Amino acid sequence: EAQVTQNPRYLITVTGKKLTVTCSQNMNHEYMSWYRQDPGLGLRQIYYSMNVEVTDKGDVPEGYKVSRKEKRNFPLILESPSPNQTSLYFCASSFASGIGGNEQFFGPGTRLTVL
Amino acid sequence: QQQVKQSPQSLIVQKGGISIINCAYENTAFDYFPWYQQFPGKGPALLIAIRPDVSEKKEGRFTISFNKSAKQFSLHIMDSQPGDSATYFCAANRGATNKLIFGTGTLLAVQP
User: Fold this and answer.
1) What residue in A sits closest to B48 (Cα-Cα)?
2) A5 HSE (CA, 13 A, CB side)
3) From the list A40, A90, A100, which residue is nearest B98 (CB)?
4) How far apart are CA B53 and CA B55, in angstroms?
5) Which of A15, A97, B15, B104 could join A42 in a cystine, given CB atoms 3.0 to 4.6 angstroms apart?
6) pLDDT digits over A27-47, tens only?
7) Inter-chain touch A104–B100, beta carbons under 8 Å
8) Does the distance separating the beta carbons of B89 and A109 come in below 8 Å?
């Protein structure tokens, strides 16, 4: 089954304790992206990757890191989480044809609480 | 110029009625306008999308109306059903990038 998987689905942590949220897709997509979803703000892009070893900042990158060592994986790293990073996080992937307008497939989400 | 404004924030419709959600954008470089549907506990999923060379696209009970001159587009759900109850996001994308700019979402409740 074609899908985007994220782990963990739920995470409660404390301020300053480094954490990683994994994302993996099995559709051979070049493009991967991380979003955070907050009430009243919709989905905002954190980081994206056009292909292996190519990453760039989205609209709200502060406090986050990413890496893209393999095409299928795109982990999100919070080196020193703070309470304002409490949110619902989504990973997404799509083909990157350069034309635009490609359907993005979203993972099931990771609900993070930072105390 | 990067914003997509969506309204209303929430919407209650009776079963069988028409649900209408509106979005507006500023950036004329946007050339792809998808709508995503999100059920509780799930990730968003593409519902329907339109490009600005057409004024309307219909897929089953879902229709996008697009007004290029007004820089507005809307989602119409005909014969709304309780199973349509979800959060709907409009989005816009600029050609040659995959970057989606999302609206703030509309929580739709269809009452039986």
Assistant:
1) A103
2) 8
3) A100
4) 7
5) B104
6) 999 999 999 999 989 999 999
7) yes
8) no
- Tell whether the model's pLDDT for residue B95 goes beyond 70: no
CA distance A44 to chain B (A): 7
CA distance B38 to B85: 9
Q: Torsions phi, psi of A83, nearest 5?
A: -55, -30
Q: Which CATH number fits domain B4-111: 2.60.40.10, 2.60.120.200, 3.90.1300.10, 3.20.20.30?
A: 2.60.40.10
DSSP string, A31-88: EEEEEEEETTTEEEEEEEEEETTEEEE-S--TT-EE--SSSSB--EEESS--GGG-EE
What are the extents of the domains in chain B? Answer: 4-111
Interface touch A100/B49, C-beta < 8 Å: no
Mean pLDDT of chain A: 93
CB B62 within 8 A of CB B81: no
